[in-house]
Amino acid sequence: MTRIPERPSPARRSTLQLLGACAILTMTNAASASAAGPATIIRRAIPRSGEALPVIGLGTYSVFDVAPDPLAMAELGEVLKILVAGGASMIDSSPMYGRAENVVGELAGSLALHPSLFLATKVWTSGREAGIRQIRESMRLLRTQRIDLMQVHNLLDTATHLKTLREWKQAGTLRYIGITHYHSGAYRELEKLLKTRDYDFVQFNYSLAEREAEARLLPVAAETGTAVIINRPFAQGALFPKVKGKSLPDWAAEFDCGSWAQFFLKYILAHPAVTCVIPGTSTARHMTDNLKAGAGRLPDAAMRRRMVEYMDRL
Length: 314
Hints:
Elements: H1 10-28, H2 30-36, E1 43-45, E2 52-54, E3 58-59, H3 70-85, E4 90-92, H4 100-110, E5 118-123, H5 128-142, E6 147-152, H6 158-171, E7 174-180, H7 187-194, E8 201-205, H8 217-223, E9 227-231, H9 239-243, H10 260-269, E10 276-277, H11 284-292, H12 301-313
Parallel strand pairs: 3-4, 4-5, 5-6, 6-7, 7-8, 8-9, 9-10
Antiparallel strand pairs: 1-2
Helix pairs in contact: 1-3, 2-3, 2-11, 3-11, 4-5
């Protein structure tokens, strides 16, 4: 009797498609993963604990909010593998970012990367019970029993959430707590909260196009012993059109800079108050490029002024 081949279930077909896509992208991106090289990335101490954190991380806003398409998921899997292979660890997400937490959790689980990651996410709701539900949901989506850093997103109901975050940190469910925002209009409130010394981390925007944090916020973070995560390092992509078609200045080689992305990131990392910067990407080659900004020499104060003057002339 002729045996009719069993037709795979939809779930199994999806898994097979993802495995096939992963195999293709692994071959395509093998050079990128190799180029990330050994773990030579610069690390900086988290002031409140002394724990060393790699200076390059990964933001997931928009770029990890993808449908469960095998090719898209495979490419994002390569991004995570390159991140870890390059010695980095922080991934920053939020319930605000659509499917991003779910995608990170699924890929970290399937690739067995959880032990290598520093998982940061946020609470973005009002009210104590709503905040607790959201934190639990983030843990479920990220497939973890402990979150390295839980932040109050955009200072929404900060006082209420602080009580919960303190309790959960004391219980060991959260390792660190923090606050975030993404524009200079919030700097005064961020500064006020930093001076309470209630938060281990603060996250805000800073780049060659948005330098307002240099005036007071970065110095206050340093004075209060608060670790600093930088978002919007490329000013939401606004820096790249300014340099389109232009070659790097020759003097960029003096701080081991090989691309415009590295130029922009090294400017940020050269500020001593910065702990980690989290450029977002869904592309393996961009992840490799970003990691290189976290290795080698960084510009000194005089060189940073030269970088500002150069960009201001464009």
